[in-house]
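## retry 2 of 3
previous attempt timed out at serialization; input unchanged, resubmitting
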Amino acid sequence: MSAFLGHIHYWLYHKIGRVVEREQLIFQKAEEMCGATAEELQSQVWQIYGQPLPDTELGELIDHTNIHGWLQRQITIAETREAAFIKELVDTCGGAAQDIVLSAYAEHGKLCGEHAKAQRKYDGQRAAGIYQAVNDYVLNGMPCDQGDVVTVNEDDRVIWEGEICLQERNWTKAGVDKAFMKECYQKWFAGFVKALNPAFVYSQAADTLKGSPVNRHQIVKEA
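## retry succeeded, writing output
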């Protein structure tokens, strides 16, 4: 059955797995902070959205009659479940929970950046190569959903415009604060880039384009 699966399907499946990893890291940090409360909140969220996918070969899990639809559904579930857990955690534990979530995002970004570096398949000496690695690791909807406008400047700077990620629609479903989630992803990107090559940095700032709010993100060599 796995013969029907292509590289892009495994690529997406691995990115879904990254979200599951990060959700578990957040839970571990939350459990250290508030013990049984974290377990109770996780259980409540899992009752609504289901448990994370098991660490199993994709061919044993996927609906081979609807590959695209199955992947799209798993993306939605993973993103929404993580956001819902973060919302419940912050609503219950306040600022302390925000701190551990931000810490988890930064740590997970660093771990993913280190993993990408170890693969030796990305040109980590150039901003464009680092951006390619970011795009391979961060879950941002289906490939057909992508809406980023990417510019590579002569000074080895990659700038991309658009929302920080397409997860926003799932954040809305979960009811989590979108500004906080964007801050979380900024921590993730910064950790990833720094781990892949400490000579580069990630930064983000709000801007406007044709009267509409736009997020500009960049990877650039540190001065």
